[in-house]
UniProtKB/TrEMBL annotation:
A Gene Ontology cellular-component term: cytoplasm
UniProt keyword annotations, A-Z: Kinase, Transferase
Ranges in coiled-coil conformation: none
Domain Protein kinase: 42-351
Protein's UniProt name: Serine/threonine-protein kinase STN7, chloroplastic
GO annotation (BP), single: mitotic DNA damage checkpoint signaling
Annotated SUPFAM superfamilies: Protein kinase-like (PK-like) (SSF56112)
A Pfam family this chain is assigned to: Pkinase
Gene Ontology MF terms in the entry: ATP binding; protein serine/threonine kinase activity
Amino acid sequence: MPSGSEHRHGLQGLCVARPVRPARRDKRAALRMAGLITADQFTIERPMASGSFGNVFSGVAVSDGTELVIKSPNDHPLAEDLLQVEMKMYARITGQNKPRFWPQYLGFSENERPGGKQNILLFRREIDSFTLAAFFDNHRPQELYERLGVKMSPGASSTALRFELTRSLLSQLLAATDHLHKHNIIHRDIKPENLLVTRDSEFPVKLIDFGSACERSGLSRIGGKIVCFDPIFAAPEQALDSWNRARERFDIFSIALVGMYVMFPGLSSSQRMAAFREEFAHCRYDLLLWLSQSKAMMGRIGYAGMSESYEAESRPEAIELINLLARMLEKKPEDRPTAKEAANILSRCTA
């Protein structure tokens, strides 16, 4: 959470006391905004979070009391450029009355600050939502099962529930990513901190933070000159020249890593995932070899636990899921399936 000084600095001139909310009017009018939003159309309430390139605040639309999330760049040299990319990407994918795969983007506002204007982004707030990382950091997997529709059958092992949770999450992520790829957009920063788990019964998982996204092709290639991602969840082709060969299959590798993070309790933290990446590279990006070696590395960080390893090899549905993840984690981008191909394979996995 940003401190009070960071709060004032991040949105200079726009931070006001929590207002008395006005009576609700035509809700559709506010929710159709997708361009410039003037400062008198919303108020800022309190800081919510901070990251490497910006700060996030809660707010309220003056017209109808709609709860907002407001994103502001910080003083990092790349912060404003990343926000500009994010603004353009959301403008490209906005248009649905009920966005399925990401929070509803309402538009941007221009904030006057020393040195010139600064854009800030406004979204409709997803009530009672948290990132996937927050659920694991706060030890709340039971609530994740509920939100992602995993039935907790009597007698089901915790490992079996994890496998089913992984299947459900991958299904959501692959659908969202396939939609992006069809619209010429590559996210490039898919990780637990950028996945919002909501109470939307149909599409509970929302992708957030499009600042690292880029166009797959085109003359201008929005975002093509900026490469900024989390090395723990990024594909091996992290250098720009290698990434240009991978394109959308960069996202596929990241999705599979999120699957590993969810499936194996021993990997459900950034520190443990970093250790996994190191051990996985030593295994030449061969997931089946890594799983086999886990039995000899019991208790060692970066490997699966003994019970998880055996159950992954003994349950038919787990074997199918592991084989899919192995394909998605191939070192060569051309050996990975597309999002649509991976989704089709996942749908055929034994329930």
